[in-house]
Design brief:
seven-stranded mixed beta sheet; single chain; alpha/beta; 206 residues; Rossmann fold; binds 5-O-phosphono-beta-D-ribofuranosylamine
Length: 206
């Protein structure tokens, strides 16, 4: 299905590194008409292997690959990332399973315009080393009974920026990290991210 976007919609880039199920949730929300304040103008992948690129292609969303190892240092990588964002007139950057690190030049240029989804109730189980299944492994090791997902603004601290929205998910007896990860995605992430994007885009236009 093709989506006709209004001219006033906020152009956003979704940055990915993997499967892209959160990107898919945003695409589905756009196609269902529930993402009405922003449009996915670009997908940026940190690797050519990301399945998320196939999702973008299936929905005719422009996509580019910006790989850290193609640049000799972090500054050159940040310049390339900024150039890509600016060339596409991107106003909001959505990190959806993006595993590369954005440096200060990008974070400062897009202050309060970069958001990230994290699969726990931050500040718990966040920070360096907490990504992918490791988050859910730590949740189970700690024995907490409630986990969830968080969407937050990105600043220079890993998983440390201002929280926008959170949603809780129950941890159940016998959960494995994989089972818990799936429940957190289904019950929290895929609902929370489109809602947060809509909220942030709306704030930007009002
Ligand atoms: C999600 O759990 C997200 O919260 C985290 O990375 C994972 C990405 O999954 N930041 P996907 O690529 O969207 O399927």
């Amino acid at each position: 299905m093709n989506v006709v976007y209004g001219t006033a919609m906020i152009p956003m880039a979704v940055l990915v590194s993997g499967g892209g199920t959160n990107l898919q949730a945003l695409i589905d929300a756009a196609e269902a008409g529930v993402l009405s304040w922003g449009k996915i103008a670009l997908v940026i992948s940190s690797t050519p292997q990301a399945y998320a690129l196939k999702r973008a292609a299936q929905h005719r969303i422009p996509a580019v690959i910006v790989e850290r190892n193609q640049y000799h240092d972090a500054a050159a990588y940040d310049r390339a990332m900024l150039h890509t964002l600016e060339a596409h007139r991107i106003r909001l950057v959505v990190l959806a399973g993006f595993l590369a690190i954005l440096g200060t030049p990008v974070i400062q240029a897009y202050k309060k315009r970069i958001i990230n989804i994290h699969p726990s109730l931050l500040p718990a189980f966040g920070g360096r080393g907490y990504y992918g299944l490791k988050v859910h492994e730590a949740v189970l090791a700690q024995g907490v009974k409630v986990t969830g997902a968080t969407v937050h603004y990105v600043d220079e601290r890993v998983d440390g920026g201002e929280i926008i929205v959170q949603k809780t998910v129950e941890v159940l007896e016998g959960d494995t990290p994989e089972v818990l990860q799936k429940r957190v995605m289904e019950q929290a992430e895929w609902l929370l991210l489109p809602a947060a994007v809509e909220l942030v885009c709306k704030l930007d236009t009002t």
